Amino acid sequence: MNPGNATADAFDISDFHKRGGKLLQHHGLSNAYVPPDVSIYYYDQASSTIEPQGIEMNDFYRLFLISEMELVKHSNNC
User: Fold this and answer.
1) Tens of pLDDT along 33-76?
2) Torsion over CA of 4, 56, 71 and 32, rounded to 10 degrees?
3) Which of 3, 2, 68 is nearest to 31 (CA)?
4) How far is CA 40 from CA 9, 43, 44, 59, 75, in A?
5) Which 8-state DSSP code applies to residue 44?
């Protein structure tokens, strides 16, 4: 299953982790343009890829799902 037809398929982010990378990702549950399942799918696939290597996702990558948050767009008023 590929919700939203996500095309990101580079799930092995172990090099990012080894370089000390940290990632905080948020996704609005009310986003009508990009379904939250897309972010959940990527997180789950990346986790399934790197955890067998002994890397714990929560050590460097956190996904926060925000209720009632819609798509955040660039605005000149920001």
Assistant:
1) 888 888 999 999 999 999 999 999 999 999 999 887 777 665 55
2) 30
3) 68
4) 13, 5, 6, 17, 26
5) H
CA-nearest of 31, 34, 38, 32 to 6 is 38
Could you tell me how many residues make up the chain?
Answer: 78
Whole-angstrom CA distances from 51 to 14, 36, 42, 72 are 9, 22, 14, 31
Sole residue written with tokens 């919700």: 3
CA atoms within a 13 Å half-sphere pointing along the CA-CB vector of 46: 23
pTM for the model stands at: 0.77
